[in-house]
Amino acid sequence: MILSQNTSTIRSLNLLLMVCINLVFGISHDLSDSSKEPCILKMTLRNFRSILSWELKNHSIKPTHYTLWYTIMSELDDMYTVENCTNTTRSFCDLTGMWTQMHETYLAMVEGFRGSTSLVSCKHGFLLAMDMSFEPPEFEIVGFTDHIIVTVKFPSVFEKELQSAISLIIEEESEGIVKKHKPEIKENFSGNFTYVIDKLILNTNYCVSVYFEPRGQETVIKSPSKCTLLQPGQES
């Protein structure tokens, strides 16, 4: 049934009421199961920004704009709208600084409109520690005669709880041998991070990949490798 945009608040309150009933009566309901939802919602850390994106499964439905609602499950509060993601024409929302608690479950609802008519509504629950994907950071390498300097580009502000949920991995590969480096990063670190891979062999080609390893997840997204041949005369 096609609904007017004025019923969006009622829809969000009904969704919140459903969640409350499930919690009170102990009904088992996997809010992260999106198999029956008309959209695919994903949460991704991209360039250190927390991005919620969505894609309609039925491409014949073509909303002109979307509105995002969300609430925090443990608070059972009213659903909020996000100023930059209300009546937006984009199919994503930047939630950096808003969704910050890695062990909270956030319930999101995206509603798509054409004019003032609601065409589609999707909901999804996200436990960030388990449901967020972590894209690799940008990095550069410089090779010398016996070592490689790896510079990883971090933002000026890196959220503390997010930092505690992931480990930075620098992977070195040469002649089929892979070595994993797990450098320690100080709390509240900001700015570029520099790491030295030393005790390397001259006239040897080395490839480096950098990625995040989230605690509690098995899936990682590795960066494309960057390679360098260590040659004489490349003194630091």
From TrEMBL:
GO CC terms in record: extracellular space; plasma membrane
Pfam families with a match to the protein in the record: Interfer-bind, Tissue_fac
Domain Interferon/interleukin receptor: from-to ranges: 133-229
Subcellular location: Cell membrane
Domain (Fibronectin type-III): residue spans on this chain: 17-117
Broad class of the protein's primary localization: membrane
Membrane topology of the entry: Single-pass type I membrane protein
Signal peptide: 1-26
Family statement drawn from the similarity comment of this UniProt entry: Belongs to the type II cytokine receptor family.
Stored PANTHER family: INTERFERON ALPHA_BETA RECEPTOR 2, INTERFERON/INTERLEUKIN RECEPTOR
Function, as annotated: Together with IFNAR1, forms the heterodimeric receptor for type I interferons (including interferons alpha, beta, epsilon, omega and kappa). Type I interferon binding activates the JAK-STAT signaling cascade, resulting in transcriptional activation or repression of interferon-regulated genes that encode the effectors of the interferon response. Mechanistically, type I interferon-binding brings the IFNAR1 and IFNAR2 subunits into close proximity with one another, driving their associated Janus kinases (JAKs) (TYK2 bound to IFNAR1 and JAK1 bound to IFNAR2) to cross-phosphorylate one another.
Name under which the protein is recorded: Interferon alpha/beta receptor 2
Organism: Carlito syrichta (Philippine tarsier)
Lineage: Eukaryota, Metazoa, Chordata, Craniata, Vertebrata
